[in-house]
Amino acid sequence: MKKYYRLMLGRKGIHTAECVAGGFVGVDFGLQQDLTDQLPDEWRAFNARFVPLLQAGNPDLTRIGAGLACGAIWTVCKGLQPGDCVLSPDGSGQYAVGLIEGDYRYASGQVLPHRRGVRWLPVKVVRTDMSEALRNSTGSIGTVSEISKHAAELQALIGGTAPPALIATNPDVEDPSTFALESHLQEFLVQNWPQTELGRQYDIYQENGELVGNHLRTDTGELDILAISKDRKTLLVVELKKGRASDQVVGQTLRYMGFVQDELAETDQTVRGVIIALEDDQRIRRALRMAPGVDFYRYEISFKLVKA
Fold it and tell me: Count of CB atoms within 10 A of residue 119's CB?
C-alpha cells in the first residue's frame, strides 16, 4: 500500500530545488560513509549500531538527538518503498511532490549524500489549500514524518481537486466540525506550554534549539509530545485524546514510555507519562491506579461572546 511522507530536504527545505532538479531525495546528519550493505530490515538494529557512532563523532549530540537522526536516515534509505509519495516543502508555502524510485545510493561529497531516486510530479501542493489537520501533520518537527492518515485529502490535492472543507481522519468521530475544533488541542498546548501546569516543571524537548518533541515517531505509533524536566532527569510522554479517554490509552501510553526508556533515555533518566483528555471514566481511573508512573489531566474548551 502506498504511504505518504512529509520530508524536509535540508533546514527549511533549502535543498528542495536541487533535489527536484536532480531527481532524488536525501539526508545527511554528518554520517559520511556508504550504507549500501548496512541497512537492516529493522530500524532498531540500525540504531543500535549507528547511534553510538553518531554520538562519538558529535560529543554534544544527546541519545535522543542521535536516535532521531538515525531513525530519519534509516527511513529515507530503507523504510521508504518504491511508489511511496513524498511531499517536500520548498520554503515558499508549497510542497514538491514525488514518487520514490529505486534503492539507496551514496553520493560521496555531495549535498544530502544518502539518497533515493524520485520521479517528481509536475504539481505543487499549496499549504493554504490543506485542511487544518493536514497542516498540523505536515508542520510537525523532524526530517521525515508519515502522513498516510491524510491519504484521501492528499490524493485530492495532488490531483487538483479541492478536498472537503472539513475532514475527520478519526473513524470514531461522527461530527467533522467537532473534530476540527478539538484537533487544535495539540497545537494550542505546544504554543502555550509555558503557561500550563506541566510547563512549570517540564519543557518540550529541544535539540540544537529546535523543538523535536512534537509528533515524535515511535515503533508503536506517533507520540504526541515528549517533554523533559528542567533538571534534565525525567522524560515525560504526553498523550492527547480529543474526547473521552478509555482504559486502552493507558496501555498505549505505557508502550510509548517503554520506547522512550529503551531507545531515547540516558541511563540516569527516568520516564513518566501524562494523559490529557476531555473526560475520563471509571475504567481509566481503575487502570491508572495500577500505573503510578502515569498521571491524568482534563482539558476544558471555553467560548464566550463579549458585547463591545
Answer: 12
